[in-house]
Amino acid sequence: MRLVFAGTPSAAVPTLHRLARDHDIVAVVTRPDAPLGRKKVLTPSPVAQAAVELGIPVIRAARLDEEATQRIAALRPELGVIVAYGGLVREPLLSTPDAGWINLHFSLLPQWRGAAPVQRALIAGDAELGASVFQLVPELDAGAVFASRVVEVPAGATADIALEALAVDGAELTAEVVAGIAAGTARAVPQRGEPTFAPKLTLPDGLLDWALPVEEVYARFRGVTPEPGAHTTIDGQRLKIIEAAPASDTEAIDQGAIVATKTAVLIGTATTPLAVTRVQPAGKGAMNATDWWRGQRGTEGVRAGS
After folding, report:
1. pLDDT score of 297 more than 70
2. The pLDDT of residue 98
3. How many angstroms separate the CA atoms of 253 and 273, rounded?
4. What is the DSSP string of 16-69?
5. Is 188 within 8 Å of 135 (Cβ atoms)?
6. Are 173 and 149 in contact, with CB atoms under 8 Å apart?
7. Pairing of strands 230-234, 237-246
8. Mean pLDDT, range 205-221, rounded to an integer
9. What is the percentage of the chain residues whose pLDDT exceeds 90?
10. Collapsing DSSP states into helix, strand and coil, what is residue 145?
11. Which are the contacts of 197, defined by CB distance < 8 A and separation ≥ 6?
12. What is the chain's mean pLDDT, rounded?
């Protein structure tokens, strides 16, 4: 089948590789090169790099405008496949491929429509994560679903680790749907149930609230790690929390209180403490939490969130 593939981050790469095994991908559409690192070096997206390795032509487009539509239409694709491209597909591009576009979305639709489904599901403490492949329509993530699958992720996984697992399983799910469309056997079913939404995370979403039970604090930590990053304030200074887990076999301490052990820094919640093992103070590199706390001379009695 002649496909055009649109995607940008590393989570889209497994699907690109999987589809390239069985189909003719006539072009890959991705976001333009972006400045990365301290030196702001212009760097191709992970999908662009994968496409070059596969020998597939790349169309770099900040948005899918008239020019991008014309370039894609000239290739006469039979189907468009999109995975986290980072932009909207509108008419007439939506109807340009013979079979339209399908979208791999990292949630069990209609749950968590939007830009941050994995992160929002973790923050909400969802018992299950999954992936869905649906027909792209003008309304956000609202098209009929070809297939959904619950995906097992490692216990305690942060958003990046969970997304890696979903990306691999989602690639196989997408390949099955594309094969069905090519054979004429694929059938999409309208979404059922009340949708929930997953807007993009911002820096304030990473602030941990020590007045909540430890399960909720930890759920937010997992959902915002590594981006935009879990954090608290210590004496007015932002402290990024990089590694943490609920403390085991530990008595409760006051909300926001800080107690050091040999291996971790415990921070009190509404129930039992969160054990923090790695942090990054403002303007410094990442370090062990115990080393950071030893360097906080004269801060006895200071609380997280202060």
Report:
1. no
2. 96
3. 7
4. HHHHHTTSEEEEEEEPPPEEETTTTEEE--HHHHHHHHHT--EEE-SS--HHHH
5. yes
6. yes
7. antiparallel
8. 98
9. 89
10. strand
11. 112, 113, 114, 120
12. 95
Backbone angles phi, psi at 160, to 5 degrees: -65, -40
> 45: alpha, beta or left, given left = phi > 0 and alpha = psi -120 to 50?
beta
Q: For residue 44, how many other CB atoms are within 10 A of its CB? A: 18
Dihedral (Cα; 93, 94, 98, 103), 10-degree rounding: 130
Partners of residue 212 on adjacent β-strands = none
**Phi, psi dihedral angles at 236 (to 5 degrees):** 85, -5
Q: Is 109 helix (H, G, I), strand (E, B) or coil?
A: coil
What's the CA angle centered on 163, arms 8 and 41, to 5 degrees?
40
- φ/ψ of residue 21, rounded to 5: -70, -30
pLDDT in tens, 62-104: 999 999 999 999 999 999 999 999 999 999 999 999 999 999 9
Distance CA 136, CA 143 (A): 5
Beta strand pairing status for 58-60 and 24-30?
parallel
Helix residue ranges per DSSP H, 184-238: 214-224
| 210, two tokens | 């020590």
Answer positive or negative: Cα dihedral of 182, 151, 132, 60.
negative
> Could you give phi then psi for residue 67, rounded to 5 degrees?
-60, -50
pLDDT for residue 298 is more than 90: no
Omega cis (within 30) before 138? no
pTM above 0.85, yes or no: yes
Structure tokens at 152: 């097992």
- Chain segment 260-269, per-residue pLDDT in tens: 999 999 999 9
Dihedrals φ, ψ of 74, to 5°? Answer: -65, -20
Phi, psi values for residue 15, rounded to 5°: -70, -40
- What is the rounded CA–CA span in Å between residue 221 and residue 279? 12
Lookup: tokens for 226: 């590594």
Given a contact cutoff of 8 angstroms between Cβ atoms, the answer to whether 104 and 170 are in contact is yes
For CA atoms 185, 113, 119, 102, the dihedral sign is: positive
Compute the distance between CA of residue 56 and CA of residue 41 in angstroms, rounded to an integer. Answer: 24
